[in-house]
Amino acid sequence: GNSDTGGSSGGDDGKITLGFSQVGAESGWRTANTTSIKEAATEAGIDLKFDDAQQKQENQIKAIRNFIQQKVDVIAFSPVVESGWDTVLKEAKDAKIPVILTDRSVDSADKSLYKTFLGSDFVKEGRLAGEWLVQKEQSASGPVNIVELQGTTGSAPANDRKKGFAEAIAANPNLKIVASQSGDFTRAGGKQVMEQFLKANPKIDVLFAHNDDMGLGALEAITAAGKVPGKDITIITVDAVKDGMQALADGKFNFIAECSPLLGPQLMDLVKKVHNGESVPARIETQETTFTQEQAKEALPNRKY
Amino acid sequence: MTTLSLLAARTRSRLPRRHVPVLATLVLLLVLYGVGVSQYRAFSNIQVVFNVFIDNGFLLVVAVGMTFVILTGGIDLSVGSVVAMTAMVSAFLLREGLPAALVLLVALLIGPTLGFLMGCVIHFFDIQPFIVTLAGMFFARGMCTFISGSSIPITDGFWTRMSQQRIGNPSGNFVSISVLIAFAVVAVAAYTLAYTRLGRNVYAIGGNSQSALLMGLPVGRTRIAVYTISGLCAAIGGILLSFYTLSGAPLIGVGMELDVIAAVVIGGTVLTGGSGYVFGTVLGVLVLGVIQTLITFDGSLNSWWTKIVIGGLLFAFILLQRLIGIRYK
Amino acid sequence: MSNRTAAYRALTTHRLFWPVVVLVVMLAANTVYRPGFLSVQMRDGHLYGSLIDILRLSAPLILVALGMTLVIATGGIDLSVGSLCAISGAIACLYISRQPDQNSVGGVLTALALGLGVALVLGAWNGVLVAVIGIQPIIATLILMVAGRGLAQLITEGQILTINSGPYKAIGVGHLLTLPLAIFLALAAALLVAAVTRRTALGLIIESVGGNAQASRLAGIRSGRITFLVYVISAACAAVAGFMMTANVSSADGNAAGLWVELDAILAVVIGGTSLAGGRFSLGGTILGALLIQTLTTTVYAMNISPQTSLLFKAVVVIAVCLIQAPGFRARFTRRRAPATGPAPVSEQPKEQVPA
Amino acid sequence: MTGSQPVLTMTGISKSFPGVRALDGVDFRLFPGEVHALMGENGAGKSTLIKVLTGVYRADHGSVTLGGGEVSFSGPMQATAAGVSTVYQEVNLCTNLSVAENIFIGREPRRLGAVRWAEMRRRARALLARLDLDIDVNAQLGSYSLAVQQMVAIARAIDVEARVLVLDEPTSSLDAGEVAQLFRVMRQLRDDGLAILFVTHFLDQVYEIADRITVLRNGRLVGEYPTSELPQLGLVEKMIGKELRALERLDEQSRHDAAAPAEGAPLLDVRELGRRSAVARFDLTIHEGEVVGLAGLLGSGRTEVARLLFGADRADHGSVRVDGTPTSLRTPVAAIGHGIGFCSENRRAEGIVAELSVRENIILALQAARGWLRPVPRRRQDELVDRYVQALSIRPADPDIPLGNLSGGNQQKVLLARWLITEPRLLILDEPTRGIDIGAKTEIQRLVAQLSDGGMAVLFVSAELEEVLRLSHRIAVMRDREMVAQLTNDQSVDADRIMQTIAAGARHEEVPS
Ligand SMILES: Nc1ncnc2c1ncn2[C@@H]1O[C@H](COP(=O)(O)OP(=O)(O)OP(=O)(O)O)[C@@H](O)[C@H]1O
Ligand SMILES: Nc1ncnc2c1ncn2[C@@H]1O[C@H](COP(=O)(O)OP(=O)(O)OP(=O)(O)O)[C@@H](O)[C@H]1O
Ligand SMILES: [Mg+2]
Ligand SMILES: [Mg+2]
User: Fold this and answer.
1) What is the C-alpha separation between B197 and D104, in angstroms, rounded?
2) Are D512 and D496 in contact (CB under 8 A)?
3) What is the ipTM of this complex?
4) By CB neighbour count within 10 A (0-12 exposed, 13-18 middle, 19+ buried), where does C327 fall?
5) Whole-model pTM?
6) Nearest C-alpha neighbor of A79 from the set A70, A71, A88
7) Interface A:C, Cβ pairs < 8 A
C-alpha cells in the first residue's frame, strides 16, 4: 500500500471530507433530501463527496469502498436496504473512518460498525397515520373499508409503513383493509390502481397511500369516478411534499404523516462531532410531525420542498 | 494516443482481424484508467483495481454465462432476477437453519434448473429467447418477493467467512474470495469455449444455426446447454452476491441483465452471435466498473448528472472502439 | 362442410388467433371474478368502466410499441423509448409550467412541438449511432436509455413537475365521442404508421432490410437511411406516448415516467408476431400485444392479486401466451394430422460482424 | 457393381409442404460402390428427397432402410452418426469459423476432451490437398469465395467414415479443373465401396461419373436407369416430360462470328480500377449490346471484378466513365443510378430475402430505384411478376409464397427476374445459371442473347467455360486476381485457347517485374 500518498483530500486546508452515498433520485422527496445535504455541507464548510447509487445496493457498497480508498474523514449513507453491510462497514472501521447512517438503519448485530443513525422511522409514520384514523373513526358503528396503496413491493418504506399502519388500526375491529396493491410510489401507479379499486369495491371509505404521489394520482381516479376526495373518501398519506400539502390544504387529503427529507443540517452537526471524536447518541430521529388540513394551511407558505 | 498508434502499427501485420475489437477495448480501458489516475491521486492505489474486481465479481460471473448465450445468438434476460432469487433462497434457507453446505447445493441448483427449462422451451417450441427469458425474469423476481417482502440478513458462519476473508495483506491490499471464484469461472469458461466441442458448437450455432443443424451438430442440446450454463453462472453470481452483501434482498439486481449484456457487447461479442471471447467480457465488465469508480471518485456529480456522465462515457468509449475497429478492418 | 372446416382452420392458424383467445380468456376470467368487470356506464357524458380504462392506459404502450415494431423489423431494438417518454413529457410540462396561462392552447401546442422536436433530435442521434457509425442497436440505444433518464431529471430538477393545464390534460384523460381521447390518438398514430408503411413501399423496404440487409444493399436499398428513419419514427411515437403519460397524471416525473416501458413494448411486438431477428412485421399484432399486456396489468389490480405474487402471475400468463402461440408447441399436441416438420429451412440472414 | 444388396432404400416417400406436394410416393435405391445421379428439373423434389433421407424433414409417408434396418432420423446429427454424409445444395457451413473448423467441427481430433487445434489444422491441410485446394486453413471461411466454400463443404463430407455420401449440386460453382479433381476423389471413394448420391444439372457430368440415374418429375418418380441405357436426349425428355423440341442445339447459338458491336463510345469504361488485396488494377470497356464474358479459375477474382464494377465493394484506385462522363461507382445505389444491375453468385447470403414473397423479391430492385415514396402500382407488379414467372417458368407459379420455400434453382430465377424488370443498361451476372436445370438454362442464355441484341450490355461470369464462350462477344481472362488478357471471341477462341491464356498468364507472372 501507498497509504502516504492519498491523505485526506481536504486535509491540507483542515476541511472535513464527507463521503455521502445517496440511494438515488427516485422521488421528489429524495431530491429534496440531496439538496438539503448539499446545502448544509456548503454552509458547514464540509467538503462533500457525493455519490448516487441509483437504487442499487451494489453501487452503494462500491461507493463506500471508494470512499475508503480516497480516505475521506467521515462516511455517511442512506442504505438502500437494511441488510448486508457488515463486510464493507468492517473495512471502513479497519480504515478508521466513522460511519453515519441517514434516513434508514441497518440490521447489523455489531453496533460498533457505525456511529449513529439519523433519520425517520417508517413504522412510526405508518402508525401515526393509523392512529389518526382510529381516532377519527372511533365512533364508527359499521365497518370502515380501507384501501391501501403500497410502495414498491419489497422496499423498506413500503414494508414498514404497511406494518405500522396495520398495527395501529388493529385497535378498532371495524377498520378493515379491503384491498391493498402496489402503486410503485408513483402518481401514475397510484392512479391506475385506484381506478380498479373504485370499480371493484362499491364502498370505499378510506385510502391510505404510502406516499403523497400515489395519493395525488389516486385523487384523479377518485374525481373521475365522480366521488369527492376528502369527503366521500378519507385520504391519508405519508411524506408531506409540497403538492401533497397543497392537496391537504385544499381539503382533498385529510391527513399526512410527515417524513422530512431536510436532515442536512443535523447531519453536518453530527459529522463534525463524530470527526472530533465526541460521543453521539446511537439513534437520532428527525423531527417530524403530522398535518391535518388546518395545520397544512398554516404550514404551506413556508414549505421548502 | 501514442500507445494506440504503436499498437496499431504492430497489429496491421500480425493480428488476426478477429482480435482487433478485443484489443481496442483493452487499449481504451487502459486509457480510461489512465484518465482516472491523472485526475485523482488515490486512483493509483492498486487496491482501487482490486476493488473493481471485488465489487464486480458477481457481475463478471453472470456476464461469462451471458457470453455463452449471446455467442449462440440468443439472449438471457432472466439473469438479474435469478441472481436475486439465488441470494434470496440462500438467505431464507439459512435463516430456517439449514446447514450451509446443503443451502449452497440447493441454491446452485435453482439457476441451472430454470435455465434448463427455459432452454427447453426455446428449443422445443421454437419461441424467441427474449420472451422466454423475460417470463423467466418475471418468475424469478416474483419468487423473490414471494419468499419475503423484505431483505433477509445472513449470519451463517461460512457465509460470513467467505464474505470477510481477505486474501493478500488484510490491512493493505487484498481481494475477496469471490474474486478468486470469479477468475476460476472465467478460466473454465474460456477453456470450454476454446477447447471443447460444446464451446465450438456454441460458435457454430451463433454463426448460422441452420448450417450447424445441417452439419450434424447437436444444436438443440447445445442451445439448452448454454441457457443452463447461463443459469448456473447466474446462480454462482447469486451466491457471490450473497457473500458480498451477506443478505438476500427482493429487489437486488434489478436491471442487472442490461449491465451484463452491455458488458458482454462492449467486450466485443456480437449480439447476433458467433464471434466474441470471454476475455472481452472481462474487459467489458472492467470498463463498466472503472466508469463507476471514476464517478464515485469525482464525487461532485448530482444524481442526474451521474446518469448523463455514465451515458456519455459509455458513448465515448464505444465510439472510439468502433472507430478503431473500422480502421483496422 | 369441408368449407367450414377450412374456414375454421384458416381462423385457428391465423397468426393473431391465439393472442385474441388469451385476451378473451383473460377478460372472461375477470368477469367471473367480478361480474361487473365488463360493464360500461355512462358518466358525465363519457363511458366509464374497466374496459375503458384498459383502452386508455394501453394507448401510450401502443404508441411506443408501434415505433418499436418498425425498429425491430429492421433487426434493431430501441431501449431508449422509456427515457424519451420521460424527456418529452418533462419538456412539455416544463414549458407549460412556465406559461402565465397554462390553459392557453397555443402554449400547449408550442410545448408539444418542443417536446416532439427534442425527441426527434434524440431519435436522430440513435439513428446516427446505429446507421452511420454502425454501433449495435442495443448498445447504441442503451446510451440514451441511461443518459436520457438523467436528462429528464435534469429538466425537472429531480422534482415532480405538476401542471394545471386543461388542454394538456386532455391528451391523457380527455374524451372524444364518449371514449378516451388517448385511444383515438393511438389509433390515429397506428393508421398513420400503417399508411406510411403499407401505402408506400416503406414497409416492404423495412422488411427487406430486416430480412437480409446484405441482399437489400445489393438491390439498391439505402438501408442506412431506412434504419435512421425508423429510429426517428420510434422516438416520435415515444414522445407522443410521453405526453400521454404525463398528461394522465398532470405531472412530469423524470424518474418514473415510462420506466420499463421498453420491455413492455418489446413484449407487445413479440406477442404480436414480429420476430426479434427482423423481417416481417405486423402492426395489428403489436396493437393486440399492447392491449393484452395492459389487460394483464389491469387484471392484477382488478383481481387484487397480492403484489408479492403478481409477477409470478405475469410470468405464467406470458409463458402461456407464447406457448399456445408457438407452432412448435401446438404441433406437439396435434400430432395426428400435422407431423412435426423439422425447423423450416428458411435461410438465415448473413451476419454482420461488428463490435459494440 | 449393383449385384449386392442396396445399402439404402427409400420406399413410397411422400412429403407435402403447405400448398405443395414436393414428393409423391417416391422410391429410391442406392447400392454400395455406385455413383447414382438423381436428376430432375428445378423444383422436382431432389433436395427434398435428400432432406427426408437425412432427417431434416420428416416424411408424411414412406420408409427408409439403411444397411438392412429401417431408420427414421430425427435430424442430420443422427444421419451423420449412422453413416450418411451430406453436402446440401446451398453451402451450409459457418462462415464465422475457420476453414479447418468447418471441416472438423463435430468430430474434432481431441485429447482428454480438449480440441487439438494443431492436429486439426494439419489434417485439414492434408484433406484439402486431396482436393487440390491450397488455402489458409486458419482463415475465416467467410473470407473465401463461394466456390472455395463449396470445396470445403465437400472436404468435410468426404472425410467422414460414411457408408453413403450425398452430394446435392456440389459442382454448381466449380470450374472444370475442380470438378475433375472432385470426380477423381469420388471414383476413389466409390471403388472403396461407398455409395454416392449425386445431384447436378450438368448432363456431361452425369455421363462422366454416374453409374445409374433416377429421374424425378414434379415430385414423382419417373424411373431408374443404368446410365449406359439412357442417352442424353432420353434423359432430358424424361426430366421435362415432353419431346425435346424446345431445346435447340445450343452450340448453334454461339457468338463466334457475331460482329461485336464494339464501335462507338463505350457504355462503361474503367481504367486502372483496383482494390488492394482483392484485384489488381485492370482496364475494361463495355459497349452497348455487348456481352463480355469473364473467364478464370476458382478464386481468380472474377467475382471481385464484378463487385467492384457494381460498387458492392469500394475500389481504392482507378477511374470510371459511364457514357464518357467521369463518375464513381462507390455504392450499389450509385451503380444502379447509372443503369447497372448485379446478380450475386451467393444467392442465399446476398440475393434472396427468404421471408418475403416471390413477388416482393422480384420488385425489390425496381422499388428501391423508385424510392419508397412511389410504390410500384399493384397492377404493374402483377403484370411484371406474371410475365417473368412465365418467361422463366418459376415454379410454383404462386407469387405470394415466401421465396425461402422455393427450390434453389427457382430462387435463382427469381433473382434474375428482379434485375430484368429494372431494364438495366448493363447487367452483371455472376454465375447466373448456378443450379438451374437445362431447360431454364437455355431459356436464360437465350434471354441474355436477346437482351444484348436489344442493346443491353452484359458482363457474364460463369465457371462453365462453354457457356461463356457461347454467349460472349469478348472474353476477359482472369488469373490470380489479375486480368491477364481480353480476347475477341472469334473462331480462334475456344476453351483450350483460354486455358492456355491462363497458363501463359502464369508464365507472365514468373517474369520478375
Ligand atoms: N421449406 C419448404 N416449404 C415449402 N415448400 C418447399 C420447401 N422446400 C421445398 N419446397 C417446395 O418443394 C418443391 C421441391 O423442392 P426441392 O428443393 O426439393 O427441388 P429440387 O429438385 O431440389 O430443385 P432445384 O434443382 O431447383 O434445387 C418445390 O416446389 C419447392 O417450392
Ligand atoms: N488459392 C485460392 N483459391 C481459391 N480462392 C482463393 C484462394 N486464395 C484466396 N481465395 C479467395 O477467393 C476469392 C477470389 O475472388 P473471387 O471470389 O472474385 O473469385 P472468383 O474468380 O469469382 O472465383 P469463384 O469461382 O470462387 O467464385 C477471394 O475472396 C479470396 O479470398
Ligand atoms: Mg435442390
Ligand atoms: Mg465467383
Assistant:
1) 10
2) no
3) 0.89
4) middle
5) 0.90
6) A88
7) 94
Residue A207, strand partner residues: A147, A235
pLDDT of residue C338: 41
**What's the CA gap between D508 and D312, in Å, rounded?**
30
Q: How many CB pairs under 8 A join C and D?
A: 112
Give, rounded to a whole angstrom, the gap between the first and last alpha carbons of chain B. Answer: 19
Nearest to B142 among C271, C311, C342 (CB): C311
Distance from the CA of A216 to the center of ligand 2, in angstroms?
Answer: 70
Contact C302 A153 (CB under 8 A): no
Binned at pLDDT 50, 70 and 90, residue B11 comes out as: very low
What does the pLDDT read at residue C141?
A: 94
Ranges in chain D, pLDDT < 50: 1-2, 249-252, 256-257, 507-513
Which neighbouring-strand residues pair with C252?
C161
Residue with cell 461407398: D194
Q: Is the pLDDT of residue B27 over 70?
A: yes
Instruction: Pick from D14, D17, D173 the residue to mutate for probing ligand 1's pocket: most ligand atoms within 8 Å of its CB.
Output: D17
Contact B42 A71 (CB under 8 A): yes
Residue D201 CA to residue D435 CA, distance in Å, equals 7
- Chain C CB contacts of A200 under 8 Å are 34, 302, 304
- CB C43 to CB A226 under 8 A? yes
> Separation of D412 CA from ligand 3 center, angstroms?
11
The DSSP result for C254-307, as a single string, is TTTTTTTHHHHHHHHHHHTT--TT-S---HHHHHHHHHHHHHHHHHHHHTT--H
Distance D89 CA to ligand 3 centre (A): 6
End-to-end CA distance of chain D: 55
* Interface D:A, ≥3 CB–CB pairs < 8 Å: no
3-state helix, strand, coil in chain B (%, to 5): 80, 5, 20
Q: What's phi and psi for D110, nearest 5 deg?
A: -135, 155
Q: Does B218 touch chain D (CB under 8 A)?
A: yes
Residue A84 makes CB contacts below 8 A (sequence gap 6+) with A57, A61, B151, B153, B154, B244, B245, B246, B247, B249
Predicted confidence (pLDDT) per residue in B269-302, tens digit: 888 888 889 999 999 999 999 998 988 888 888 8
- Contacts of residue D92 in chain B, CB cutoff 8 Å? 208, 210-211, 214-215
Given an 8 Å threshold on Cβ–Cβ distance, is C343 in contact with B24?
no
Amino acid at B100: A
With an 8 Å Cβ cutoff, is C191 touching chain B? no
Task: In whole angstroms, give the CA distance from residue B213 to residue D74.
Answer: 11
Cell of B44: 493509483
- The answer to whether D27 and D221 have CB atoms below 8 angstroms apart is yes
User: What is the pLDDT at residue C355?
Assistant: 44
Which of A277, A286, A264 minimizes the C-alpha distance to A76? A264
Average pLDDT over residues B110-137: 92
